[in-house]
Design goal:
Elements (H helix, E strand, L loop, with lengths): L3 E10 L2 E11 L4 E5 L6 H9 L6 E6 L2 E2 L10 E4 L11 H11 L4 H14 L15 H14 L4 E5 L7 H18 L2 E6 L2 H7 L2 E6 L2 E6 L1 H6 L4 H6 L4 E11 L2 E6 L4 E5 L11 E6 L5 E4 L20 E14 L2 E8 L2 E8 L11 E7 L4 E3 L9
Parallel strand pairs: 3-8, 3-9, 6-7, 7-8
Antiparallel strand pairs: 1-2, 1-4, 4-5, 9-10, 11-12, 11-14, 12-13, 14-20, 15-19, 16-17, 16-19, 17-18
Helix pairs in contact: 2-3, 2-4, 3-4
């Protein structure tokens, strides 16, 4: 068993509070990604879990046992670092076997175990190589094999893929996921890359300013972000500012900077009141685009709320730029002095150019609303 409990974890460096009151339970065999921007406290949290930093306050338990004050070598954890930290004077095999040597494992057994781990990460053919002659992706595999060789209860990964190019990183994400499924051990993975977290994680813990803001399955945190920071951090979106004009039992009507009223269906009409300031999130994948003379009449802002709880909002704007991004095309559209963007796959992109008038439409049920303080409005 390798369940981890962080309870009220805090870390100060002098007067600087790097991690504040982090509490979470990581299940046995789970892969948890700590996701956040630089300086959010995620790596400091991992280093405390590894025994490389001592908490200022709080408790760390592994399998119910308090390890808060234990040094790294007395914990059943192993860490894969961002810079790989391979020994240049040892062969690949010797690097992988090093931790086993420190554990007092006999020479033949540790060489056998090291070869087994190199086979697992597809590096067996490089056992006798100088690690400094390896590519970045190969070095990362060796570092991973070295950490797995000591058979840890918990594997900690501190931005291990950040030094790899996009293709190698994506390949390693798949390999890490497969290795985790095979070993069924507890992994805690730190990253600033949202795509990486969504690919790897059973659950994602989002950190900001030293706080663990939200923990949940990838789909949960994306569909139901707790606040505006999470909504903006997990993917590109359009934030449209507005003021509530009026509410009814089934909808909130918001006057926006787009020069149009946006209608948002609600089952909780008391969540907002007339005059409240709100930010509306319009995700690019939820926006439909077509020529300006299609769909709704130009002076019609929204159809009434339908029996299924949906409503169509629509606004006309001018294409400002067209950006091709490989398989997708991003349209930046100017509307009443502000800009929104929509994305389409290349095959569905249409033939719009800068200067064209187009209509953007969306279902009000796809809109998320946030208050001035950034908290999510429960509609």
């Amino acid at each position: 068993m390798s369940e981890i409990t962080l309870d009220g974890l805090e870390k100060r460096y002098g007067t600087e509070l790097a991690v504040e009151d982090v509490s979470v339970t990581i299940d046995d065999g789970e892969l948890l990604c700590l996701l956040g921007p630089s300086g959010s406290g995620k790596s400091t949290t991992l280093r405390m879990l590894a025994g490389l930093e001592t908490p200022t306050d709080g408790e760390i338990r592994i399998d119910g046992e308090d390890v808060t004050d234990r040094p790294a070598y007395e914990r059943t954890t192993a860490t894969v670092f961002q810079d790989w930290a391979l020994f240049p004077h040892k062969t690949v095999l010797e690097n992988v076997a090093f931790g086993l040597k420190m554990q007092g494992v006999g020479k033949e057994e540790r060489r056998e175990r090291a070869r087994e781990m190199l086979e697992r990460v597809r590096m067996a053919d490089h056992a006798d190589d100088d690690p400094m002659n390896l590519s970045g992706g190969q070095k990362q595999r060796v570092a991973l094999a070295r950490s797995l060789a000591v058979n840890p209860d918990v594997l900690l990964l501190d931005e291990p893929l950040s030094n790899l190019d996009k293709r190698l990183s994506e390949d390693m994400q798949i390999e890490l996921r497969e290795i985790h499924a095979e070993l069924e051990e507890t992994f805690v993975h730190v990253t600033h890359d949202q795509d990486e977290a969504f690919t790897l994680a059973d659950r994602i813990g989002i950190m900001a300013d030293g706080n663990l803001v939200q923990v949940g399955e990838p789909n949960e945190v994306y569909q139901n972000p707790k606040n505006r920071f999470i909504e903006g951090f997990l993917g590109d979106t359009n934030f449209v500012e507005g003021t509530v004009d009026r509410t009814s039992p089934d909808a909130v009507r918001v006057e926006t900077e787009l020069g149009r009223e946006v209608v948002v269906p609600t089952a909780n009409p008391d969540a907002l009141a007339a005059g409240d300031a709100v930010s509306l999130s319009l995700r690019p994948e939820a926006l439909s685009i077509e020529s300006a003379d299609s769909g709704l009449e130009s002076d019609e802002t929204a159809r009434p709320v339908r029996t299924d709880g949906s409503t169509t909002n629509s606004v006309v704007g001018t294409v400002e730029s067209v950006l091709y991004r490989g398989s997708t095309v991003r349209y930046s559209v100017g509307i009443e002095g502000t800009s929104v963007f929509a994305e389409r796959t290349v095959s569905d992109a249409g033939e719009f150019e800068a200067g064209d008038e187009i209509r953007i439409s969306w279902d009000g049920a796809d809109v998320l609303a946030f208050r001035d303080d950034g908290s999510r409005v429960d509609l």
